[in-house]
Known about the structure:
Structural class: alpha+beta
Strand order of the largest sheet: 1-2-3
Order of helices and strands: HEEHHEH
Number of helices: 4
Number of strands: 3
Number of domains: 1
Strand content: 15-25%
Helix content: 40-55%
Largest sheet: 3 strands, mixed
Amino acid sequence: xxxxxxxxxxxxxxxxxxxxxxxxxxxxxxxxxxxxxxxxxxxxxxxxxxxxxxxxxxxxxxxxxxxxxxxxxxxxxxxxxxxxxxxxxxxxxxxxxxxxxxxxxxxxxxxxxxxxxxxxxxxxxxxxxxxxx
Length: 133
């Protein structure tokens, strides 16, 4: 059962998304990393505000897992920097959990399948036939 987020959770999600994105962009510039595009697509805070699930879109995709692993390994530093920036807004900074957001890849795959002629709406013969029992 999916519970609706409270207005406080929604506000915290928005603020965390902006602040984490700012910190990550600064880290990329400071590390002089070239050809890396990173965006924070979603943030979900648990109802007790103890955990923030942060979804990232990383381009190029072929190196995304390595960047995500490095970010997870250094999440304590990001949480500390976040605490310094938000000390007047939040009493306690939630634990940060990072995930790759593959929704754009999923959309691209569906679009590719529809354009390549495997559209079941135009070719119903490719669908498995249902059997009556």
